[in-house]
Amino acid sequence: MREAKVSRKTGETDITVEFNIDGKGNADISTGIGFFDHMLNSFARHGLFDLKAKVDGDLYVDSHHSIEDTGIVLGNAIKEALGDKKSIKRYGSVILPMDEALVLCAVDLSGRPYFVFNGEFSTDKVGEFDTEMVKEFFYAISYTAGMNLHIKVLDGSNNHHIIECIFKAFAKALDEATCIDPRIDDIMSTKGSL
Predict the structure, then answer these.
(1) Distances from the Cα of 117 to the Cαs of 17, 154, 182, in angstroms?
(2) CA 41 to CA 55: how far, in whole Å?
(3) Chain centre to alpha carbon of residue 67
(4) Which tens digits make up the pLDDT trace of 1-42?
(5) Which residues fall within 8 angstroms of residue 91, CB to CB, at 6 or more apart?
(6) CATH homologous superfamily of domain 3-178?
(7) Domain extents for the chain?
(8) pLDDT tens-digit readout, 125-182
(9) What DSSP line would sit under 79-133, residue for residue?
(10) In terms of Cα–Cα distance, which of 74, 103, 115 is closest to 163?
(11) Exposed, middle or buried, 11 (CB in 10 Å: 0-12/13-18/19+)?
(12) Which helix (H) or strand (E) holds 47?
């Protein structure tokens, strides 16, 4: 089973994430930030991952610690669930539309973290979710999971649509990259490890 349960407790947050790569898109999310719950539900559903996330954070400060630390824990869960990465495709990419929004996302599960984000938002918040935290969330995932992650917002004017499009695009690209290919009987690297 390609699944993991990861917990992390600090003076700012207490987070537990359960992640199953080979799921059916089921989610049980509680972060205290409604829009973030919606985004994590969308990520699970469109990636066909099973995801449970329980987040207790210092929301009396703001949403920063809760969102960033969830990215750290989710990234660690993705890494643990992947194990030795035997037979996975390694790469995944998608250009995904949502109404007027269009997002490109590409993933390489190389073991080498690198993150590139090109996108801007015209509002500071969507609900209680700080839009500047989109970049921080995916940065945290890329570095803890050890993935090369590129996200480019190609079009869009509605901030809700753009952010949701980003989460769905990441889900689809990660689903492709984590898929088992029966033609690959080892690790997809000339080095023999990822």
Answers:
(1) 24, 11, 32
(2) 14
(3) 11
(4) 899 999 999 999 999 999 999 999 999 999 999 999 999 999
(5) 106, 107, 108, 109, 176, 177
(6) Imidazole glycerol phosphate dehydratase; domain 1 (3.30.230.40)
(7) 3-178
(8) 999 999 999 999 999 999 999 999 999 999 999 999 999 999 999 999 999 999 999 9
(9) HHHHTT-TTB--EEEEEEEETTEEEEEEEE--SS-EEEEE---SSSEETTEETTH
(10) 103
(11) exposed
(12) helix 34-47
Q: Identity (one letter) of the amino acid at 40?
A: L
Positive or negative, the CA dihedral 139, 3, 181, 47 is negative
- At 190, list the tokens: 């000339």
The amino acid at residue 137 is F
Which tokens belong to 106? 């590409």
